[in-house]
Specification:
Order of helices and strands: EEEHEEEEHHEEHHEHEHEEEEEEEH
Strand order of the largest sheet: 1-2-3-7-4
Number of helices: 8
Strand content: 15-25%
Structural class: alpha+beta
CATH superfamily: Chorismate synthase AroC
């Protein structure tokens, strides 16, 4: 399995949803960065389950332990190992599914590739794996903080309810990370209706990278948009990624879509801060299409390990909408990509005569 990312700033996640714990090893972070467990914990708490009626009821403190690479609140330049121990796994909830494939999950694909029967909670494919990414993202944020690079993600649509405006301050304090204060209640109602019907609902998450350094990204196969797109698609549940105007460009003319320039710089940002695979210094804007949570209590048709048709209903504790918890993961993944690209660019500049 591929569990590594990065070229200079490298992260390797480990662990399963119902194993002893999950964690990450981050390599390539320079010495001297301000980092301690409390700083990492702030990020982990953003995606922790059991904090709102719109999230999984699994009660996990997600308390991080930094095992190496940090001393007296500063990184040492050596690998940073972080661990979060599982405390509220209920593998018994999955006993009836041990020989049946859950629709929409990785169970069947893993069976075909690895010969593995369905694992409790999805094992390595569980959304719980993302807590390790968020911990790694805290290291990347510390690296980019002196450059005043910011990362913010928020929910701009839930089902058929789409935000008309974005209020980031409101979103960061809202359980759904709803971007539009006027429609937050409608988004919550959309989720509650799906939950009561034993179902789930999808949505859209928007991610903004503020004040990114210009010049990040390496044509032609290391383009920044390709790196960001790959990072976002690696998040479970993300089925579409667009940058800037995204799919809307298909219906425009060049005169409408080109970002013209004046003496003060760009007059628009339809490109989403990336041209030719290289950052321009304008805000980088992405949107993620997040599928409905596949774990639902409604009966569904599937197969068992012997190929026989069966009907299942999934028990356990699951998010009726993934968007609020995808948002902090998207921030972390963007931070890792941007920080790594900055280190690559810095190394390139230093190598020039």
């Amino acid at each position: 399995m591929s569990s590594f990312m990065g070229r200079i700033l490298k992260a390797a996640t480990f662990g399963e949803s119902h194993g002893p714990g999950l964690g990450v090893v981050v390599e390539g972070a320079p010495a001297g960065l301000a980092l301690d467990e409390s700083r990492v914990q702030i990020e982990l708490d953003k995606r922790r389950p059991g904090r709102s009626p719109h999230a999984s009821a699994r009660r996990e403190p997600d308390k991080v332990e930094i095992l190496s690479g940090v001393s007296a609140g500063r990184t040492l330049g050596s690998p940073i190992a972080m661990l979060v121990r599982n405390q509220d796994a209920r593998s018994g909830d999955y006993a009836e599914l041990a020989r049946s494939f859950r629709p929409g999950h990785a169970d069947y694909a893993y069976w075909r590739k690895y010969g593995l029967p369905p694992q409790p909670g999805g094992g390595r494919s569980s959304g719980r794996e993302t807590l390790a990414r968020v911990a790694a993202g805290a290291v990347a944020r510390a690296l980019m903080e002196p450059l005043e690079v910011g990362f913010a993600a928020y929910t701009v649509a839930v089902g058929q309810v789409a935000a008309r405006r974005v209020d980031r301050a409101f979103a960061l304090g809202d359980p759904l990370r709803a971007a539009d204060p006027d429609l937050a209640a409608a988004m919550a109602e959309e989720i509650q209706t799906a939950r009561l019907e034993g179902d789930s609902v999808g949505g859209l998450v928007e991610l903004a990278v503020d004040n990114p350094p210009a010049g990040l990204g390496d044509p032609v196969f290391g383009k920044l948009d390709a790196l960001l797109g790959g990072a976002m698609f690696s998040i479970g549940g993300v089925k579409g990624v667009e940058i800037g105007a995204g799919f809307a460009v298909a219906g425009r003319r060049g005169s409408q879509n080109n970002d013209q320039m004046g003496e003060q710089g760009f007059l628009s940002n339809h490109a989403g801060g990336i041209l030719g695979g290289v950052s321009t210094g304008e805000p980088i804007v992405l949107r993620l299409a997040v599928k409905p949570t596949p774990s639902i209590s409604r009966e569904q048709a599937t197969q068992d390990l012997e190929g026989r048709a069966v009907t299942i209903s999934i028990k356990g504790r699951h998010d009726p909408c993934l968007c609020p918890r995808v948002a902090p993961v998207a921030e972390a993944m963007a931070a890792l990509v941007i920080a790594d690209a900055w280190l690559v660019q810095r190394a390139l500049e230093r190598s020039r005569p």
